Amino acid sequence: MVSAICTEAALQQSYIQEPVDTIYFGGGTPSLLSPAELEQILQQVFKQFTVNTDAEITLEANPDDISTEKLTYWKNAGINRLSIGIQSFFAEDLQWMNRAHTADQAKACIQLAQQAGFNNITIDLIYGTPTLTDEKWQQNVATAVSLNIPHISCYALTVEPKTALDKMITLHKMENVNSETQSRQFTQLMQWADDAGFEHYEISNFAKPGFRSRHNSSYWQGKHYLGLGPSAHSFNGISRQWNIANNALYLKSIEGNVLPVEVETLTNTQQLNEYIMIRLRTMEGLSLNEIAARWDINAVHKLRAGAEKYLKNDMMVLNNNSLILTRNGRLFADGIAADLFC
Amino acid sequence: MKHIRNFCIIAHIDHGKSTLADRLLEHTKTIGERDMMNQVLDDMDLEREKGITIKSHAIQINYKHKGQEYVLNLIDTPGHVDFSYEVSRALAACEGALLLVDASQGIQAQTISNLYLAIDNNLEIIPVINKIDMEGAMIPEVTDQIVELIGCKPEEILLASGKSGIGIEEILTAIIERIPSPKGDETGPLQALIFDSVFNSFRGILVYYRILNGSLKKGDKIQFVSTGQEYFADEVGVLKLTMTPKQEVKCGDVGYIITGIKVAKEVKVGDTITLANNPAPMIKGFEEVKPMVFAGIFPVNTDEFEELRDCMEKLQLNDASLTFELETSQALGFGFRCGFLGLLHMEIIQERLEREFNQTVITTVPNVSFIAYSSKGDKLTVNNPTEMPDPTKLSRIEEPFIRAQIITLPDYIGNIMTLCLGKRGILINQSYLTPTRVELVFEMPLTEIVFDFYDKLKSQTRGYASFDYSPIGYRDADIVKMDILLNNEKVDALSALIHRGRAADFGRKLCEKLKELLPKQQFQIAIQAAIGAKVIARENISAMRKDVTAKCYGGDISRKRKLLEKQKEGKKRMRQIGNVEVPQEAFLAVLKLD
User: Fold this and answer.
1) B440: pLDDT confidence band, cut at 50, 70 and 90?
2) What is the pLDDT of residue A331?
3) For GTP, which residues are the binding ones (chain B) (predicted)?
4) Angle between helix A268-279 and A333-340 (nearest 10)
5) Which helix (H) or strand (E) holds B194?
6) Which residues of B touch A156 (CB under 8 A)?
7) Nearest Cα to B97, choosing from B107, B85, B106, B87?
8) Spatial CA neighbour of A94 closest among A67, A64, A116, A65
9) CB within 8 A of B426, min separation 6: which ones?
10) Is this prediction's pTM over 0.80?
11) pLDDT at B433 exceeding the cut of 60
12) Closest residue of B to A225, CA-based?
């Protein structure tokens, strides 16, 4: 697989013209890569593309994969940001979520990483699960704050169709997620994060000043990106494309020097809709000036008219000619985006 | 004239009328096997699917019997209660009728009411037990039922199977030997009974008639007696598998005429065709058909109104019993208030709009035609809840009643009584046609069968009940207008005219159904049913608490955009009532209450 990914990097060499500013090892469990494999991929990326010297290079890691030894490898390989899937600092929650790590590991791995010199760390926390009380939720956030984590991604538990969880709920073997609890815990989170000095810069992302994810921010700024490996998505400003998800078929295709991609070219309206959908989730909001510049003034008028009711009912504010969701509005970002679609 | 036989087939749905007709046509070589499409007489898809003949047609059969050529005109009759007047006119065009009864099903309500119509018209009845080769055939029982019903001798009953062709020869012989030939004055002034008309997109309206007196020649200047309109007979002829033009259609025969009429409304079933310069009087029995059930039909997308109008006009070209006028609804925009002969007619129109014309429509709560008397004594016909005057200005309201005839097995008498009495029915008669077959006659308000009567009757009797009705005039009624309010905004399209005693129950069910169908919104929604200012039922839909997905990274964007675009499309099809978004299904909810 690693060599196929390296081959793909070569095949995709012309996809990205601009210098690479961020590299992200994610999706799955890249913390399982051996030092040699990680090295191999990074070398290939540096060979095929121009990478900025201060590039942000993130690695997603599971708490139970983190050891002093690995941390040293990663540091030496050039990784300068870690994204750790903590989920919760409580055993009960971790068990319910079927995670491999323990509550102790959750805390310990962060301290290990910090000792190894990783200061730019982000952790994932999950709320709205049946086992998570408001008190525990507050403690989870407080623990993250006390551990000096500069970036937190918080996700409400989502029941995806056709998953084991979905089935358990349908069979009444498990309590369904409670949208009222989720809504309350999200609102609490926004306050706590604010109190602790975090910027709520995207619906699910909170950062201390200077610690936003540069990589994820590029998605939200509409920058071009190239994804390598099965299921990876790429975007060049006009079209989105994604690799086939099946590992075997991916390998076979790359072996024959063929990119196993599906491409979707976006119409002008689709590009605008994506802009609306993504930007509405950010704290900078939907810039009407940018829309006037990139699309047309009619779209601005339409959006302005569509936004009227949300401005009135306190879901949105208009600041510097940008439409920005309020805390209350952030609870309804999807519905509002769909409503504003052109 | 001596060698003409005009006949029809009286049968319940699914008793094999169309199949038997096919065999008669095949056997007499009226159609070759190659042309043979199953069930030739039902030529609309919908008819074939529903297994009922919606519009009657006619076909001429030539048959040699004992060396003599005969002309047999088979006049097909519509097979549903909503079309009883059309049936009566088709029967009036015949001298005889085959009474076709399914060997395993026995006599059904509709068969009986059509049989009575046939007997009223002095038709010679030839009883036929069909499907005798089917498993479950009960020939002796059904024979008893028939003997009981028409007083014939058991040996006069023919046994047949349309499917395997048993008894076809015998039926043809009986038609010739038992049904009298037409009588009439061959040289008298033309008097022809219109029993049907059909729209043909190339030829205009084809009028089907039976000549009682005189004859009709190509080029004659004719007149329709009821309307006084005059036309030229551009083409006359008889109906074989296709139209066969002739110079003249003679006394006693069945034929068609083309006059350049473009709109079905000009042709009224039951009207008389005569000659403009040598007129004869109207044949008795003519009635203007009046719609019995009314409902609004609206385009799903408001901007498709003009398209819908176009389709409604085209539909009316070949269905004169459909009436409509412009209606505006705050909830649904522009549409039409339509009048139908009955509920099935309404369903047929709706389905034809969808299938033949590709229209997606919203049909509102159907209602009957009420008569409201103001305190000043003015009389007002109310076909639409919005037309109902303020109760304080009314002295009384009348509603149409029907005589409902239900034939069933004795086991289900209890269930039927409960159902009909619960629907304000009055039992008029209960009689055993045979030990295993009971006829129940009720007088009932028509409005009670408009909602869910058919489905309930079916489920309460496991399908072992047949139903027929005829209108019997208007009676005093305690009718109220019930409104539905969403967050205090009235939804005009959901208003209903309903008996006061049933309003609370109906209102509660409707509110519950709407609670199921309305999506949560960012605020609480109050659903209320009210009579005037008095709320009689209420449901709440709690506010949606959150509507945001957690992740939106590089790989999520495309899928998420598509999802939201779909959501947006769905919302476009919703209607805005005040601040509440209402999906179309909600407007149909009322038709699907248990």
Assistant:
1) very high
2) 95
3) 14-19, 130-133
4) 150
5) strand B191-200
6) 546, 550
7) B87
8) A64
9) B442, B443, B444
10) no
11) yes
12) B554
Per the CB < 8 A criterion, the answer to whether A310 and A276 are in contact is no
Token output for B482 = 């019930």
Average pLDDT for B445-456: 85
- Tell me which of A284-293, B107-116, B471-480 is least confident: B107-116
Indicate the residue type of B89.
Answer: R
Collect all residues of chain B within an 8 Å Cβ-Cβ radius of residue A187.
none
Please check the confidence at residue B115 and state whether its pLDDT lies above 80: yes
Q: Distance (Å, rounded) from C-alpha B538 to C-alpha A92?
A: 42
Helix or strand (DSSP H, E) at A334 = helix A333-340
Q: Report the residue of chain B nearest A310, measured CA to CA.
A: B522
As a whole number of Å, the CA-based R_g of chain A is: 21
Extract the tokens encoding B13: 């749905």
- Can you state the angle between helices A179-195 and A134-146, rounded to 10 degrees? 30
Q: How far is CA B253 from CA A110, B27, B78, B92, in A?
A: 100, 21, 21, 13
Residue ranges for the known binding site of B for GTP are 14-19, 130-133
DSSP E strand boundaries for B316-436: 323-329, 333-340, 361-363, 367-368, 370-374, 379-382, 394-408, 426-434
In order of A13, A14, A45, B399, B588, the CA distances from A253 in angstroms are 17, 19, 20, 75, 51
B6 φ/ψ angles, rounded to the nearest 5 degrees: -110, 125
Return the structure tokens found at B293. Answer: 């059930």
Q: Measured between CB atoms, which of A186, A234, A270 is closest to B546? A: A186
Nearest to A83 by CA among A172, A8, A149: A149
By C-alpha distance, which of B368, B591, B387, B320 is closest to B471? B368
Contact present, B227 and B286 (Cβ < 8 Å): no
ipTM value > 0.90:
yes
Query: Which residues neighbour B76 within 8 Å (Cβ) at sequence distance 6 or greater?
Result: B8, B9, B17, B21, B41, B53, B56, B57, B58, B59, B90
In chain B, the N- to C-terminal Cα span, in Å, equals: 56
The three-class DSSP label of residue A256 is: coil
β-strands B4-11, B68-75 pairing: parallel
Q: How many CB atoms lie within 10 A of CB B515?
A: 14
pLDDT of residue B56: 41
Q: How far from the centroid of its chain's Cα atoms is residue A330's Cα?
A: 17
Q: What are residue B296's phi and psi, to 5 degrees?
A: -85, 140
Which residues have a Cβ under 8 Å from the Cβ of A311 and sit 6 or more positions away? A317, A318
Residues in chain A: 342
Backbone region of residue B244 per phi and psi (left: phi > 0; alpha: psi in -120 to 50; beta: other values): beta
Helix, strand, or coil (residue A207): strand
Which among B336, B280, B339, B289 has a CA at the least distance from the CA of B86?
Answer: B289
**Distance from the Cα of residue A254 to its chain's centroid:** 27
